[in-house]
């Protein structure tokens, strides 16, 4: 009889970013984004938790080999964003404000095609220990 | 197309409390609450995680500015309970036993009117690293 | 009016294990399980989080006395698996591959009869800080 | 040939306390101790790390059996301070202000006679994750 | 009789930086600093632990009021470096490579004049959970 | 003018072990090592912190490139002990009881020849979050 288990893998990357709306004035951006609107950028150690839900394979006892999942995350996320300036060095955030909410959805959408469609995918992203997000909610 | 993201903010406060039922005898309270029924109180470092679920604003990329959320939590929760004796110094626990289960619901109910009704609200409270609660479940 | 709260209790145990499928060749097991297939075993510090959901008792303010829950976990899980070789010393994993997915379901099924049927039960198991599982999902 | 190794054991207790100088006016105490001078007390989850330095016994490979050290800490510190009001329930802080600095020295002095004099003893005490102390320094 | 106690206060800031030697070629900088030499910068959540050693004041039981220490760190360190680009926004790292080793010494030297000369000062800086430094050693 | 900075790098490995003295009877080993003497082994997630003290190179701002230090630890320690049975799979613990005290000294002695002799080396090893050791002390 089938039963579903959630499996989780934690990874991390370090990046610089700046929060602002290109269509707004400097005053508007300062009012909304404050210190996060520093035009010279600031940065974070991002912690990422990828969650998959599915039925364990009876032959292996695995929902997925977490080494395989780790490799997918490294290829799609870490190689793309680690030690990068999200605004300047990535196509994903060239026009999209790199808030935690937007980053976590971009990461989800990068991973989704690489994960078996039978598995549900949720991504949690820690911008700091005190501020974090999850998608989908 | 709309999509929902969860955002989380962590805060903390330190408080004293005593667990007991005023309608019970000392022997009943000792039997049920043990050391937690010390009439001179004991205390905890409470860690609080507030979770909101909603659609990011396309103009900002925020579900809510977490600085705004932090300020609401500080006004409604931290100012009320930090460095307090929950039994003696608060109206909320004058008649209500300050178990983690009751505290987390009180905190939820204090925050709910301050948060946009379009956003779902969940509160997690750590009494210790090993004992914690969440409401609603 | 009734309302549901989740309560959580964290416990830990240390154990040795080996991942392999007895019906496979050594080459197949090496290909799938790699280092985890060491015939001399390796080991982990397992962290366990038990979650129960129910209505707090109005007389106590408790969903369950977490001391009682801790004692149940110690009797059913810690006494059985702590400082053990999961493959050699337990009946549960004599024929079942002790992956995190299988361990978390075994722990759930050991605890379920000991917990009031009105309470929902979920178990999370950390094999390492970076690899963890939850059941049911 | 002898060589020295440090061994560490972590324990915890929860307690209420109030910081004030009995010889001062209320205004003086408020000015110096602020919220920590709440006459109804507040509280903390204290984390304690006991460090011993000595030569491992060649027969066992132990500086000390950490189970033995844990039992000593439980007898001398946890049984005395856990779920207590430090000001009201203990002889140690009946006249001594229970600052982290004073608590850590009291704990050291309680443990010192129970530890082999050949072993150096240092105690670290976390009042919160952000405020902690160590003695001797 | 006097006795010395160490007190610790933890703070944090987020910043962007780039590691390189202005006197070197790009090839030399890439060979030595790799990803950390990204000309568009990357960033970190820096955790800072400030340690002071001294004798507790018998009247207060404090080596220093940790609220006062926290305010000094906020004025000298957090206000200067939080949400900044260390290379572009600070005079301290305009010519000095912002490695963790150099940042921790700069922070020490900023704090030293603000701390009573009777107190020993040590600063620990976490660039990530896995890479950290301390000065003086 | 030269100044010394400490740099730290954290790594981890998972291993099985059994604590016992080959020259003792089973009864003696049970009396001293208890559950740790399980003849079928148990295991741990070991966390390792390697500390080096030296003067930063003025050209790089590094005491050592922590990527280089990480590679040395991976070659000398992780490749040797990760996913191994310390008693059965290693020459280091074929005759030496793998207590944390003995493991940390073995790791130190493996790393020492690979580290520049101008740098002081200290190793901390966490067997669990609550039991850990450091060498030299």
Uncertain spans of chain A: none
User: What is the top-level CATH class of chain A?
Assistant: Alpha Beta
E-strand count of chain A: 5
> What is the CATH superfamily classification of chain A?
6-pyruvoyl tetrahydropterin synthase/QueD
Shape of chain A: elongated
Strand order of the largest sheet of chain A: 3-1-2-4-5
Helix/strand-derived class of chain A? Answer: alpha+beta
Radius of gyration of chain A using CA atoms only = 17 Å
Question: What portion of residues of chain A is helical?
Answer: 25-40%
Pair of chains with the largest interface and how many residues each contributes: A-E, 22 and 22 residues
What does this structure look like?
- The structure is a homohexamer of 137-residue chains.
- With 137 residues, chain A is an alpha+beta fold.
- Chain A has one domain (5-135): 6-pyruvoyl tetrahydropterin synthase/QueD (Tetrahydropterin Synthase, Chain A, 2-Layer Sandwich), CATH 3.30.479.10.
- Chain A is 29% helix and 29% strand.
- The first copy, chain A, is built from four helices and five strands, in the order E-H-E-H-E-H-H-E-E.
- Chain A has helices at residues 26-33, 66-81, 86-89, 100-111; strands at 5-17, 42-54, 84-85, 120-126, 131-135.
- The first copy, chain A, has a five-stranded mixed β-sheet with strand order 3-1-2-4-5.
- The longest helix of chain A has 16 residues, at 66-81.
- Chain A is elongated, with a radius of gyration of 17 Å.
- The two termini of chain A are 28 Å apart.
- The relative contact order of chain A is 0.20.
- Chains in contact: A-B, A-C, A-E, B-C, B-D, C-F, D-E, D-F, E-F.
